[in-house]
Amino acid sequence: MVSQSRIPNIKIIIVSNLVFIFTAVFVRGKSKIDIFSQTEKFYISVKENQQVKTISSLLLFVSVLFCSNCNQDAENQPVKEFLPESKKIRDSKTGVAVRQLTNYKGHSHHFYFTNPGWYDQEQKLLFSSDRNNRTNLFSIDLKEYSIKQLTDLEPVPIPREVSFFGACKNPVKEEVFFWHDLQLISLDLNSFYQAAIFELDSGWNIAGTSCSPDGKFLYFGIWEDLSHLFDMDLKRGYIGFEETWEAKPYSKIIRVATDGSESEVLFEEKYWIGHVNTSPTRNDLITFCHEGPWIKVDNRIWCMNVDTKEVWKIRPRTEEGEKVGHEYWFADGETIGFHGTSPDGSAFLGHIRYDNTEHMEVEFSAYTGHIFSNDENLIVGDGEGVIKLWKWNGTSYDGPRILTEHKSSMQTQHSHPHPRFNKAGNQVIYTSDITGYCNVYLVDLPEFETLPYLTDDEPLSDFQRFLLESTKRAR
Predict the structure, then answer these.
(1) Which of 190, 209, 272, 451 has its CA 20 to 30 A from that of 176?
(2) Where in the sequence is the domain holding 275, given as residue range(s)?
(3) CATH of the domain at 160
(4) Tens of pLDDT, residues 303-320
(5) Which is more confidently placed, 297 or 13?
């Protein structure tokens, strides 16, 4: 578990003890000294000479001040720093320049696509990386490309293993939140101070975390841990996915103050809840999903007014066989994007307001994968082994056009590209294991019209066909 602050460096403890020993040596022969230890505190009893007492007290005060400053300096430092691993590559299919940000013999990935990881005015990016046989949180400077390790967490077994898919950045403060086992942790990105702000009872699994636009509250879902009933490894092959849906685990949506001062259960039901996402502009709105196979759930997307506790369906199913999912908020905080397929297998891109008005869906021929957009004008997806773009032309979507080939295996959550735009909409971040390990990639967007189309008559490679079928089975 993570303590309320970072553990002081062992060097600080050694120096502190040496100062105390020096105090004892200084007064030896002039007074009777009894030194003993109790729970890491030193008690020094100095008798006889008042002058000796004064000098000893002064030395003790200096040692305490020194240790305090050393500890503060330690807290203002990252766990470890790495030299830049970045390199620029050129996509062989499109000619687009791609920046590979990480290059380590261990998996790295950015946050889940609904949670942006940029901070410090988008000059830095948070990401997860497996290094030294542990998973931790890291930061990369997007100008110098130097990397800092921000946490040093003990491993936790499945199903609550250390993971940063559900981590989220405070939108108004340089602060990030993540889970370590059953503890919800805040990390100050300037001082690197960590604190446990909430602890969950045992017997629950966590479904992501999202921060309100005013930075005051965190929202997340929890569901019964059923791993004692059947095998479960949702991040690697969706093991136990359908079994969990069939079991209809008891679930809750919880709100926690970002300063740890309060928490509240907002909603609970006997259905698997996942993907709790806050509106980026409205403090009163969140979405969540009924998790499970899209074609089997009663309704995928739900919305909640956290002030009134009212809950309602978003884009209710209109006919049997429809599949809708991968929902996300537009930047306006009132429109929800999604994609899906009709009973006849045709695919569509869509968006709808939180009150189920201004509903629009457009059919298209290609496979989306995960999608994201800041508005309806430009959408990014990761299906068929490529990062692809669609552009709104006023009546339908032009494309898809290929931005770059990611060729990721998609076999684990870590290797899902999960592409998303930055706030300005001029860059795309994604993950790929094309090198054998998952790495994080960043692309500056060229003009849409300069990119090649992903054409219907272009035959799928064996690898693309494998990706398509394996991803369809996962959903």
Answers:
(1) 272
(2) 156-314
(3) 2.130.10.10
(4) 999 999 999 999 999 999
(5) 297
Indicate if 118 and 188 belong to the same structural domain: no
| Residue 144: per-residue pLDDT | 96
Show which of 24, 50, 75 is a domain's final residue: 75
For residue 91, give the nearest of 407, 303, 362 by alpha carbon. 407
For residues 271 and 394, membership in a common domain is answered with no
Q: What is the pLDDT of residue 78?
A: 76
Instruction: Tell me how many domains the chain contains.
Output: 3
Nearest to 445 by CA among 122, 114, 97: 97
Please write the tens of the pLDDT for every residue from 357-371: 999 999 987 788 999
Same domain, 181 and 145: no
Whole-angstrom distance, CA of residue 294 vs CA of residue 234: 16
Note the pLDDT tens digit of each residue in 86-135: 999 999 999 999 999 999 999 999 999 999 999 999 999 999 999 999 99
pLDDT reading at 72 higher than 50: no
